[in-house]
Amino acid sequence: MASGWMISASAMVLMMLSSSFLIMIHSSDGANLKSEVNQPKYACADGGFDSRFQDFPFCNTSLVIRERVDDLVRRLTVSEKIELLVNEAAGVPRLGVPAYQWWQEALHGVADSPGVQFKAPIPAATSFPQVILTAASFNASLWEEIGKAVSTEGRAMYNSGLSGLTFWSPNINIFRDPRWGRGQETPGEDPLLTSRYAVSYVKGLQIGDYEGTNVTELSVTQAATNRTGPKRLKVSACCKHFTAYDMENSGGTDRRHFNAQVTLQDLEDTYNPPFKACVKDGGVSCIMCSYNRLNGVPTCADHNLLTKTIRQKWGLDGYIVSDCDAVAIIHDYFNYAPTPEDAVSEVLKAGLDLNCGTYISKHAQKAIDEGKLSEVNIDEALSKLVSVQMRLGLFDGNPKTQLFGRLGPEAVCTKENQHLALEAAREGIVLLKNEGEILPLSKESTHTLAVIGPHGNASDDMLGNYAALDMVEKVDAIVLIVGLNEEQEKEAHDRKDLLLPGQQQTLVTTVAAKAAVENHPVILVIMCGGPVDISFAKDNVNISSILWIGYPGEAGGKALAQIMYGDYNPAGGRLPLTWYPEEFVKVSMLNMHMRPNETSGYPGRTYRFYMGKTVYDFGHGRSFTNFLSSFVLAPGTIYSKKLIRQVTSFQTSPNSLGLIRHFTSELDAEDPSCENLNFDVTLNVTNTGNREGSHVLLLYAKPPTSVKGLPNKYLVAFDRIHLQAKKSKSVVFNIVPCRDLKLVQGEGKGVLYPGLYTLTVDEAEHSVILILDS
Ligand SMILES: *[C@@H]1O[C@H](CO)[C@@H](O)[C@H](O)[C@H]1NC(C)=O
Ligand SMILES: *[C@@H]1O[C@H](CO)[C@@H](O)[C@H](O)[C@H]1NC(C)=O
Ligand SMILES: *[C@@H]1O[C@H](CO)[C@@H](O)[C@H](O)[C@H]1NC(C)=O
Ligand SMILES: *[C@@H]1O[C@H](CO)[C@@H](O)[C@H](O)[C@H]1NC(C)=O
Ligand SMILES: *[C@@H]1O[C@H](CO)[C@@H](O)[C@H](O)[C@H]1NC(C)=O
Ligand SMILES: *[C@@H]1O[C@H](CO)[C@@H](O)[C@H](O)[C@H]1NC(C)=O
Ligand SMILES: *[C@@H]1O[C@H](CO)[C@@H](O)[C@H](O)[C@H]1NC(C)=O
Ligand SMILES: *[C@@H]1O[C@H](CO)[C@@H](O)[C@H](O)[C@H]1NC(C)=O
User: Fold this and answer.
1) Residues 116-128: what's their mean pLDDT?
2) Whose C-alpha lies nearest to ligand 1, atom 6?
């Protein structure tokens, strides 16, 4: 039930923490299949099984993993192998190999999922803010720190027999449409931001840190971090859902029936880059293919995507898993494969290794009998799975004797991890509006606050009660908490509009008008993942400040209070997505085009292409202090094949522009030598205000205007810095044009165009001319 509370400022933190309105959302893929958690028994262990198992080569840690994998696979019968290709892998008792549940989730903390059990001695894990808020910090080291904390807790739960080690996180699909129910799980709408998030979080999970481990085991630790050596894994991460998956249920079509029609251009410069970065730069050990079809072909049955792209082009060292029941639907839902055996054969031949679901275990034998599938296909998939298990140490005997073996219940929900959850919420919360600098509140003059929430479902009845509301007269300020909850945005459910649900808008306007009469400031707090159209509040003079808090996790209330009272002033968070107005819903959610279409009136999507008006822009976020940025050193002209000229000129001469006409052909951005071309941009950033604070630097490029279909602007680099009042700092970005300024042509080819690029940071601009004398 909603309620209005009158509380003193000092009591506020307690109040917010003890109340239930700061909900946490845990999401998992597919159906709620709860299975038995693995018994705490381990392959190649010295207890529980006959000790002779340890003498098998697959148990011998002196051998390289490839040899161990081959040895195990060689010993298995076809039917034993088939039973290992599903998420509830059966195990091989005669060889001492226990069953294994592959399905664990950890989007923002180890989460309830089939392989995770929360019970004594670990009844809960640290709940970090939902990813969309953490992304708003634009702080890559924070993302990695969270990954490390989550993998430490995951290892501790594994050691206690309460979890496996394969986590199907992060979700790195581009948040393409504001109505998407799972957009909150992602880092937002920008390919660079999403790629950086994926790489940082995956590294945090898989490499982790080694605090609490035995220093005498340092040699093993080095092996774990040695990219060229045997790549041991702290836990295994999984980037999902590949690809062009960002729709649950809209316009009569659900995600399991959706055929995403995507141009090669959009695929290459929007949908795929996070996955490419996750594999190439993050070294992820798993990719999950999605439910949807891509241009007619189910992604899990697409050899071009799974084998040619993920494995051969990007070099995945790991396994590919289907989203849950995504193999079954290939025949059962859209009849892409005429029989179940065809479906199973097609996915395995396409490069899939693990079936979340049961389809492969049910139908693979018959597929082999019918000659559709060969045992070689099975062996290839199984080898990749076992290889990941061995990299995790699942065939090294009792985990208590291994690296990370000392991580137990005391490593979960530590003070440090809880502080990190608070830090993440503080860094991510976005100050959308602050008229008259009402925030931060003064502790001296703001003794009594009315906190009105929960936001959930303000009914007409409740509204009536609020209009009968006299507390407004007795307080110094009013905090109104509104927004969305799991009912409105969740897995399998997209929103139909972008408005605040129920009577919330009326409630806010009514309370704010009443407060205005008493001259009390109103602070509006918006809790949601996807954007809501709050133009009414943005333009309402009775509402002084607006904060967006995402779904802020276990420390959300505390973070909010600290920010409102200025105990913590980064207020550095920036929106990781465009906040569209309600009129955007006339656009079909099923239209996957990123670029606008003048003929059809389609406005395009995300800040890179969208032409319509916004409520708040991508990157919007105010601070309690002011920052001034300027370019101090940056080249004016770049020649591709000559030495780069570092010039400090801020003017581009007409002569240089004339030169471009002679060199109009673009450069192949995928050419490896292209990466040698690079230059530094040096900025001077000053905190001109009276408070210390954090500041997010977003370096955008506006591309040459001569080519059609290019983005309005695009993010090429970002950083988050902290500055004391009145202090300056120089920040250097190294720009590799073929990586950072690359644009994609109609057929999906990445190129570097010659011409004039305008770099912008805050209000500062600088022009660079690229002359490609190829
Ligand atoms: C493990 O492999 C090493 C290297 O080949 C070998 O020397 C050793 O004897 C093996 N250990 C067992 C128990 O077979
Ligand atoms: C970024 O995150 C790290 C890790 O939590 C933190 O130590 C650092 O202060 C943050 N940087 C800024 C500028 O907020
Ligand atoms: C560290 O590991 C070594 C070798 O495994 C062992 O001998 C030693 O007792 C361990 N030390 C601690 C403090 O656990
Ligand atoms: C990393 O692994 C390679 C290959 O196994 C080895 O040559 C190198 O010495 C290792 N480096 C470190 C720092 O352990
Ligand atoms: C909101 O309240 C109305 C009226 O009490 C009720 O019918 C409706 O189901 C509620 N919606 C949600 C999402 O709780
Ligand atoms: C603001 O409050 C005043 C005083 O109650 C009221 O007259 C006015 O309509 C309110 N403005 C809006 C936009 O609600
Ligand atoms: C733009 O819209 C028109 C009209 O609907 C359509 O014929 C055309 O194919 C569209 N162009 C692109 C590039 O999708
Ligand atoms: C940086 O900018 C500040 C404020 O404009 C100025 O005072 C300072 O001298 C600049 N520093 C450098 C190195 O340009």
Assistant:
1) 97
2) 62
Contacts of 27 (CB under 8 A, 6+ apart): 105, 107, 111, 182, 185, 490, 491
- What is the model's pTM? 0.90
Query: b or e along 387-396 (b: 16 or more beta carbons within 10 Å of the residue's beta carbon)?
Result: bbbbbbbbbb
User: Do residues 270 and 189 make contact, with C-beta atoms less than 8 angstroms apart?
Assistant: no
What does the angle CA 616 – CA 618 – CA 623 come to, to the nearest 5 degrees? 75
pLDDT in tens, 536-551: 999 999 999 999 999 9
Taking the centre of ligand 4 as the mean of its atom positions, its distance from the CA of residue 231, in whole angstroms, is 11
DSSP 8-state symbol, 113: B
3-state secondary structure of 36: coil
Q: What is the residue type of 254?
A: D
DSSP state string for 66-84: HHHHHHHHHH--HHHHHTT
Q: Measuring CA to CA, which residue among 147, 247, 268 is closest to residue 197?
A: 147
Active-site annotation holds for 323: yes
DSSP 31-78: S----PPPPS--TT-SSSS-GGGGGSGGG-TTS-HHHHHHHHHHH--H
Q: Which two tokens stand for residue 671?
A: 């050419």
Give the domain CATH number at 129.
Answer: 3.20.20.300
For the chain, the residue count is 774
In three-state secondary structure terms, 537 is helix
Q: Is the CB of 222 under 6 A from ligand 4?
A: yes
41 within domain boundaries: no
> Tokens standing for 6?
């009158």
Confidence of residue 3 (pLDDT cuts 50, 70, 90): very low
Rounded to a whole number of angstroms, the CA Rg of the chain reads 27
Ligand nearest to the CA of 604: 7
Q: Is residue 30 part of a domain?
A: no
Inform me whether the pLDDT recorded for 118 exceeds 60.
yes
| pLDDT value at residue 614 | 98
**Domain closes at, from 378, 395, 416:** 416
Judgement on whether residues 666 and 717 belong to the same structural domain of the protein: yes
Contact between 388 and 285 (Cβ < 8 Å): yes
Distance 139 CA to ligand 2 centre (A): 7
Residue 640 predicted with pLDDT over 80 = no
Nearest to 393 by CA among 45, 38, 37: 45
- Mark whether 405 and 481 lie in a shared domain: no
Specify the amino acid at residue 377. Answer: N
Q: Which element (helix H / strand E) includes 420? A: helix 415-428
- Catalytic one of 29, 266, 269, 323: 323
pLDDT at 402 (0 to 100) = 78
Q: What is the DSSP string of 287-305?
A: EEE-SSEETTEEGGG-HII
Q: What pLDDT score does 673 carry?
A: 76
Q: Which amino acid is at 26?
A: H
Amino acid at 619: G
